[in-house]
């Protein structure tokens, strides 16, 4: 279940990276980094 949650969170972060090209906001960058790290940790642990 944790691997699935990590996979989902990782792809949410990838979608937010695409959103970044439309409008760049500092909060979006921080949220992307947080979701990438969370997804990576959940997927591998």
H and E order: HH
Mean pLDDT: 84
Given the helix and strand composition, which structural class is it?
A: mainly alpha
Please tally the helical runs, counting DSSP H or I stretches of 4 or more residues: 2
- Low-pLDDT parts are none
Q: How much of the polypeptide forms β-strand, as a percent range?
A: under 5%
Helical residue percent band: over 70%
Major sheet description: none
In total, the number of strands is 0
* Overall spatial form: elongated
Rg (CA only): 11 Å
How far apart the termini lie comes to: 11 Å
List the helices and strands and how they pair.
Blueprint: H1 2-22, H2 26-44
Helix pairs in contact: 1-2
Please describe the structure with a list of short key phrases separated by commas or semicolons.
single chain; 0% strand; elongated; 89% helix; mainly alpha; 45 residues; 2 helices
Short summary:
The chain has 45 residues and is mainly alpha-helical.
Explain the overall architecture.
This protein is mostly helical. The chain contains 2 helices and no strands. Helix 1 (2-22) packs antiparallel against helix 2. It is elongated. The mean pLDDT is 84.
């Amino acid at each position: 279940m944790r691997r699935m949650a990590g996979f989902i969170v990782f792809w949410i972060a990838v979608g937010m990276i695409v959103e970044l090209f439309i409008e760049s906001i500092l909060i979006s960058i921080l949220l992307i980094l947080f979701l990438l790290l969370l997804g990576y940790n959940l997927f591998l642990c």
